[in-house]
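Exam revision sheet. Question 4 asks you to relate a sequence to its structure. Input first:
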Amino acid sequence: MTGVELCKRIKEFDAHTPIIFYSAAAFQADKDEALAAGAQAYVTKPSSVEELVDAIRLAISSSRDIQAE
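Answer key, C-alpha cells:
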C-alpha cells in the first residue's frame, strides 16, 4: 500500500486526524496527489527541522479548529 492509499483509508473513518507526508519525492504531482487524498501538508526532504515542526504545528492547530466547530 502506498502512502496516498493509506491516507485515503485513514480519512474514510477519521477525517480529523492530521496527516503530513514527509518525502524525498519533490515532484508537484506527488504533492498534489497527497493533498487530494486528504493530507494537511507535504514536506520534502531534505528540510530543516523548523520546517517540519511548523508543518506539524499547523496541522495540529487546523485539526483542533475543525473539531471545535
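Marking note for examiners. The radius of gyration is 12 Å.
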